[in-house]
Amino acid sequence: MGCGTSSLRNKQPEKVVKAALVIQNWYRGYRARLMARQHYALAIFQSIEYADEQSQMQLSNFFSFMLEHYKHARKEDLVLVNRLRETNLQDLKDRQSYVELVEVPKSYDGPRLQFPLTFTDIDVLLEAFRQQQVLHAHYVLEVLFETKKILRKMPNFTHVTTSPSKEITICGDLHGSLEDLLLIFYKNGLPSENNSYIFNGDFVDRGRNSIETLMVLFVSFLVYPSDLHLNRGNHEDFMMNLRYGFTQEVLYKYKLHGKQILKVLEEVYTWLPIGTIIDDEILIIHGGISESTDLNLLHRLERNKMKTVLMPPMSVNRDQAVDLKKDKAGKIMASGKATSSNSLSEQLSKHEWEQIIDLLWSDPRGKDGCYPNTSRGGGCYFGPDVTAKFLNKYHLKTIIRSHECKPDGYDICHDGKVITVFSASDYYEEGSNRGAYIRLAHDMAPRFFQYRATSASCLSPLYQRVEVMEYSAIRILKERIIARKTDLIRAFQLRDHSRSGKISVAQWAFSMENILELNLPWRTLSPHLVNIDSDGNVDYMSIFQDVHIVKSLETVKSAVIETLYRYRSDLKIIFNIIDSDHSGMISIEEFRAMWKLFSSHYNVCIDNTQLDELAHTMDLNRDGSIDFNEFLKTFYIVHKYDKLKTPHNKFAKFK
């Protein structure tokens, strides 16, 4: 009897172990599936983000086209051309008179700064921003002028040193996420003489608190100019700000003085250093390098001549150039005079311009060599061999860069020689990624610190975070798809020889990639986008069944609607350049001239009479001007499932 009891006891632990293994294997598989779904959602976000950046970079070709050929421009085109040629800073007044024009009323109850700034002002500003107060435009302008004053004296690359007892903290992209910046300061301490920081570009855009983030960084820099270092990123660029939200944020928060703030800020950007070198061993730059990156040249070029990536240096025949001027009434006139050499001297050479583009826009990849960055449209992809050769040439050990969102907030590649750090947590959606920063001390391995600024994403279970990400990712992907509906249907029908409304998954995936040019795993995504029958064929029209573009004018052809929606961001940037007073209005003639130039360069075929009819219809008060922002908002995407408060029903099949 004793032996029988012993045998029973031996079998029970055995069953428990087997059950535990079954549960463990199930959980591992479940978690692996969740992580795969998270990976696909992130791939959608990133692919669309890079496609938008590619469109932004391609605008430089359009502007180059106009600038190179402006001598042939008609009178109605000269307004746009002149706005592109002139610097927004030509009428900038001296600091004293400029700031004095903006008075702080006694009724203002926001934060007040005392110049010269001290540590107390950092505290005052942080507390005010925690309370969601807005810093008065007078102080914003003071901070910008003070920042420019110090930046002008700095070299292109800031050299800093560390020691075993003096560490330095490196932060990546913040993109207007004040919550992340406040969390970094809470966890890591405020800037001080004993707590140095490097902020590696992309302080603004996309986030809703870009101006507050920028003010905290600039005020901290003014208090500790030797201990807080700021590098320029690809978003410290007034043309990038037009697309990605910072311009609109400033104009919304500073309705009276937003234009002045943007003008001063445009010049501040140009004086930001383009890199930092730590202990003569570690290079901190925003993007990356190329096989032609020349540190010696980058040290000595005049960085303030880099106004924007979208204005490449233009080659002008001085004998044929047209001098554009304004008459007393403010109208653009063309004289036969040649362009002065002064305007040309304000440019970088094409080679210098490309050097900075590579520094701000490039990304590392595992493949050897250096090849065009086809995802972003600017800079290059550089491989481990390029990194090794570059570091060896300039006697460096490591490159630390930012520019790319990473799920863990950081990434190490190229045999540990390239480190990416990204400090904006939940960048795409709540739960999409952690933020991170790096602490470095002399001759010590870097230490990585991760966090999430949004408490909700920390507390939510992983499956809920993944579902929210999927819902948002599929939503923005559907918007990209509907903007190319006509082209996609044409591509599908070319492969649907039997006119059955169905094609194979392979044919569908090829058509999607060919038309949308998004680097996505279309076959894997197909069950989440279209209906597939038991034979594995795709009902290709089902991809459009739950989303469409709403338009107020039913007479407009769908192709026109799709085209306007597809190019809405590019058109809005050009509109904002024409709309120099930020009134939100341009004339119908300006709109017509803008569209003709744009469509001819992009080879977009739309009947001009339809556009004229559309513009005149939008001119409700018949004053000859249209609100272009409202014009673009006329065409917006409606999702059939918007009424669902949670994504669970829609995406239950993702589980």
From TrEMBL:
InterPro entries per the UniProt record, alphabetical: Calcineurin-like_PHP (IPR004843), EF-hand-dom_pair (IPR011992), EF_Hand_1_Ca_BS (IPR018247), EF_hand_dom (IPR002048), IQ_motif_EF-hand-BS (IPR000048), Metallo-depent_PP-like (IPR029052), PPP_dom (IPR013235), PPP_phosphatase (IPR051134)
Domain EF-hand: 566-601, 606-641
Molecular function GO labels: calcium ion binding; iron ion binding; manganese ion binding; protein serine/threonine phosphatase activity
Residue ranges that the Swiss-Prot or TrEMBL entry lists as coiled coil: none
Keyword hit for Methyltransferase: no
Gene assigned in the entry: Ppef1
Keyword ATP-binding found: no
Keywords: Calcium, Hydrolase, Magnesium, Manganese, Metal-binding, Protein phosphatase, Repeat
A Pfam family hit: EF-hand_7
CDD domains named in the record: EFh, IQCD, MPP_RdgC
Record GO biological process: detection of stimulus involved in sensory perception
The enzyme's E.C. designation: 3.1.3.16
Family: Belongs to the PPP phosphatase family.
Signal peptide: none
Descriptive protein name: Serine/threonine-protein phosphatase with EF-hands
Origin superkingdom: Eukaryota
Cofactor: Mn(2+); Mg(2+)
Enzyme type, top EC level: hydrolase
Catalysis: reaction(s): O-phospho-L-seryl-[protein] + H2O = L-seryl-[protein] + phosphate; O-phospho-L-threonyl-[protein] + H2O = L-threonyl-[protein] + phosphate
